[in-house]
Each structure stands twice: as structure tokens, then as C-alpha cells.
Design goal:
The chain is an alpha/beta fold. The protein folds into 2 domains: 231 residues, TIM Barrel; 43 residues, no CATH class. Helices cover 47% and strands 10% of the residues. The chain contains 11 helices and 8 strands. It has an 8-stranded parallel beta sheet.
């Protein structure tokens, strides 16, 4: 059972790390090994990538993974590190606000103190994004569930306008305002990395702005100068790790050589990192 005092303390620490101009930098993890390595590299918090976590559990990303398996993995990650953990919970693993509230209670029980909740509609029945009112109700349910538990969970409202080609700055800011009013603490806009666009978003969002970076995006220092409060990389690290697996496997099975395996982490150093008896 997670100690509520510790959980609340972690939540307050995590919340305080979101500073415009001095952003929280999150190299996203997907299992206990990647989480420990991220923490060991000096991260002040660990955030999961829903895609990387789903792949590690044998599921596709995009609301395909069930809540129990996802949050069991989050619990293992939270137990493996000492820093605060934020969970990417996709659309909330629930069909309605009440179900999303249940998910938030399960997130807290798993030991995480932050969530990403996306507004993408993966079924595509009514367009690429959930209606603003519907998504605001879901965010409000998440906020109420966390507040009732006495934990200042950081609710990061993800807006997929740019990622899914569903609008530019103005529609994004309209959604951001509605989601903030519903109880979101921060706004996450993946797919927006152009400096001018990021600046408009940082100036227009009433709250901390999170952007998703990666190859081709401005460096963290430049994003900081634009007013960003949080920089994450989504599934990019997981993708790079899996690319190495495929490259090494193809080389070994094809040429029968091992060059792709050069530069690996030292066995002893890794083993020590995970040896809790030391």
C-alpha cells in the first residue's frame, strides 16, 4: 500500500518542477529498467510513454491496452525509483468520466502523481478529437477523483490538434482554456515544435506548457527560452532501443557479426544498478 503522505509529498515536488523557462525534462521510460536508467542519469522525475509501455506488454498503442496491465506496469516503475512518477494513461482506459475517475484512483494506488490524458478519438467515429465539452467532463472527473483522495495529482491535458492535423494555434488555445477551467494543471501539445508556434502556445496557455521533442526539434535550451515548462520525448527513446534490437538481430542472423552490439552498457554496472541489496 502506498503511503499517502509520501504520495502527496511526491505530488507537490512534481508540481513544483513545472517552471516556464526552466522546464522539467522527461526522458520517457516504459519499464523498470528504463526508469532506473533515466533516474540514474539524473532525472528529477520519471514519466512513462504509453506507446513504449504498450509495446513492452505486447499491445499496440492507441487505447488497445487494458487498464489493469497498464497500471500494474506503472506500479512496478513507481516502486523501482525514488523520484516522482507521471503516468501516460492515453485516453484514460475508460469510456466515460466515471470510468476515468476509477483510473485516476488506480493511478494513485500505483504510486504515480501525474497523468497525461489525451483528447484523441481513436475510433474515428466523430472525427480525430473528442468534442471539447466531452473531454472537459473527463478532465473534471479526473480532477475530482484526485482531490477527493487528497493528492494534488498533476493533470496534464494532452491536445492532439497538431499531431492529428486537426487545427492550429487558435483551436489549441480554445481547448487549452476549456481543459484548464475543467481542472487540468498543464497543457501538452505534441507535434508543435516550430519555435514561433511554441512561443504562441506558451504565451497563450494559462498554465505550464509541455512540448514533445525529438530529432529535428529545437534543443531544450531554446524551448526553455520560448517559455516551455516541460519537455518530454514520448516513445522516441523506446523506438531507438527497439531499432538497436532489430539491427543487432538482423546482423547476427544475416552476416553473423556483432558490430551493432558494440558500446553496450557494462554488465556489472547494470547489475549493480538493479541490486537493491547494495
Amino acid at each position: 500500500m502506498t503511503n499517502p503522505t509520501t504520495l502527496r509529498d511526491h505530488a507537490l515536488v512534481f508540481r513544483a518542477l513545472h517552471v516556464p523557462g526552466n522546464p522539467l525534462v522527461l526522458p520517457n521510460a516504459w519499464d523498470t529498467a528504463s526508469a532506473r536508467l533515466v533516474e540514474d542519469a539524473g532525472a528529477t522525475a520519471v514519466a512513462t510513454t504509453s506507446a513504449g509501455l504498450a509495446w513492452a506488454l505486447g499491445a499496440a498503442d492507441g487505447d488497445r491496452l487494458d487498464r489493469d496491465r497498464a497500471l500494474a506496469a506503472v506500479a512496478r516503475i513507481a516502486d523501482a525509483v525514488r523520484v516522482p512518477v507521471s503516468a501516460d494513461i492515453e485516453s484514460g482506459y475508460a469510456e466515460d468520466p466515471a470510468g476515468l475517475a476509477d483510473t485516476v484512483r488506480a493511478v494513485l494506488a500505483a504510486g504515480a502523481v501525474g497523468v497525461n490524458i489525451e483528447d484523441a478519438a481513436h475510433d474515428g467515429a466523430n472525427g480525430p478529437l473528442r468534442p471539447v465539452t466531452e473531454q472537459a467532463e473527463r478532465i473534471a472527473a479526473a480532477r475530482e477523483a484526485a482531490d477527493a483522495a487528497g493528492v494534488p495529482l498533476f493533470v496534464n491535458a494532452r491536445i492532439d490538434t497538431f499531431l492529428r492535423g486537426a487545427g492550429g494555434v487558435d483551436p489549441t488555445l480554445e481547448r487549452a482554456a476549456a481543459f484548464r477551467a475543467a481542472g487540468a494543471d498543464g497543457i501538452f501539445v505534441p507535434g508543435a515544435v516550430d519555435p514561433g508556434t511554441v512561443k504562441e502556445l506558451a504565451d497563450g496557455v494559462d498554465g505550464p506548457l509541455n512540448v514533445m521533442a525529438g530529432p529535428g526539434a529545437p534543443p531544450v535550451a531554446e524551448l526553455a527560452s520560448l517559455g516551455v515548462a516541460r519537455v518530454s520525448v514520448g516513445s522516441v527513446i523506446a523506438q531507438a532501443a527497439h531499432a538497436l534490437v532489430r539491427r543487432a538481430a538482423r546482423e547476427l542472423l544475416g552476416a553473423g557479426t556483432y558490430e551493432s552490439l558494440e558500446g553496450g552498457l557494462d554488465y556489472g554496472a547494470l547489475n549493480t544498478l538493479f541490486d537493491r541489496t547494495r
